[in-house]
Design goal:
The protein has 318 residues and is mostly helical. It is built from 14 helices and 4 strands.
Length: 318
């Protein structure tokens, strides 16, 4: 009950962050369009990072292709939208397609050793980027796809930055609850057992290949659905956000936030998306400051920011 109340309070706070509260007598004018866009980007990034955390943090596997799965979802939604396909269908199709691709990609690699999965995802990431860049008839190549329509909900077009933010926040809340349910279910306990000791898990009757493959495919599906939200958010996509570098950044988010912790992806996505924006006041120095802060955090806090917070709370307890 306590966890539910905390989650509900956080959801209410996040819903009110971009809103203008001056009409209620509060001295808070809300966020402007760009601020709301950055906050929405943080939520979309956190969804993709949740998928990486499920693969890396809970199942103990490796992935270097999350940006590629985000790209698949983004391009599928953009192309389908130009042919009149409703967003709901594109969103579900993005999750389903990336789930199936995740199974097809992970099954051969997991027959050997888990680090082979990292090599396979690395190759897959490069392959997807080449397809996004070179198949100009479908993806638009380096010129990209523009004028991507935002979804319509109950006859209301979510063109406004605030309304689209609330839409993404609602989807993020649902997907967070689904992930929480997965982690708390027997599936989640099997994932954790695989991460801690695969041999012991197998001796206790856990189908190692099945559950590892399931965790990988579910994590890929989260990437695809994040991409489906990313396309209408930016309204223009090209291959650059779906290269290998962004995939490494997703991995970095999980490590910085706290691998294997539920709040880690949100904290890590906040560091990756929000922190650079706050540091822009330092103009040309902000990238150097950002990189230095990230290196310090990784060197001094191997358990991530969430892990550091947990240690601090435990030390304060009598």
């Amino acid at each position: 009950m306590r966890t539910f109340l905390i989650a509900l309070a956080l959801l209410v706070v996040l819903a009110l962050v971009p809103a203008d509260l001056t009409g209620l007598g509060l001295p808070y004018p809300g966020l402007k369009r760009y601020g709301t866009y950055i906050l929405t980007l943080w939520l979309v990034t956190a969804i993709a990072a949740m998928g990486v955390n499920l693969i890396v943090g809970y199942a103990g596997q490796e992935t270097l292709a999350q940006a590629a799965f985000v790209g698949i979802g983004a391009y599928l939604t953009a192309i389908a939208g130009k042919h009149g396909v409703p967003f709901g269908i594109s969103f579900a199709a993005s999750g389903l397609l990336t789930f199936v691709i995740g199974i097809a990609l992970g099954f051969p690699a997991l027959r050997v050793q888990k680090h082979y999965l990292a090599f396979v995802t690395l190759a897959f990431s490069v392959l997807c980027w080449l397809v996004f860049r070179n198949e100009t008839a479908i993806t638009g190549g380096v010129m990209g796809l523009r004028d991507i329509e935002r979804p319509i909900l109950f006859g209301l077009k979510l063109r406004n930055a605030q309304t689209f933010y609330w839409f993404v926040l609602a989807i993020t809340a649902v997907m967070t609850f689904v992930l929480w349910w997965i982690v708390q279910s027997p599936w989640g306990r099997a994932f954790t057992a695989l991460r801690e000791n695969p041999l012991r898990a197998e001796s206790l009757g856990v189908d190692v290949r099945l559950y590892t493959l399931l965790a990988f495919a579910l994590g890929c599906a989260y990437g695809g659905m994040a991409g489906s939200l990313y396309a209408p958010l930016v309204e223009f996509i090209d291959p650059s956000p779906f290269a290998l570098g962004p995939s490494l950044l997703f991995m970095l988010m999980v490590v910085i936030g706290g691998s294997g912790t539920f709040a880690g992806p949100f904290v890590g996505a906040g560091v990756a998306v929000l922190l650079p924006e706050w540091l822009r006041a330092w103009e040309t120095w902000y990238l150097l400051i950002y990189a230095a802060l990230v290196m310090i955090m990784m060197a001094l806090f191997p358990g991530g920011i969430v892990g550091l917070a947990r240690v601090s709370v435990r030390k304060r307890q009598p």
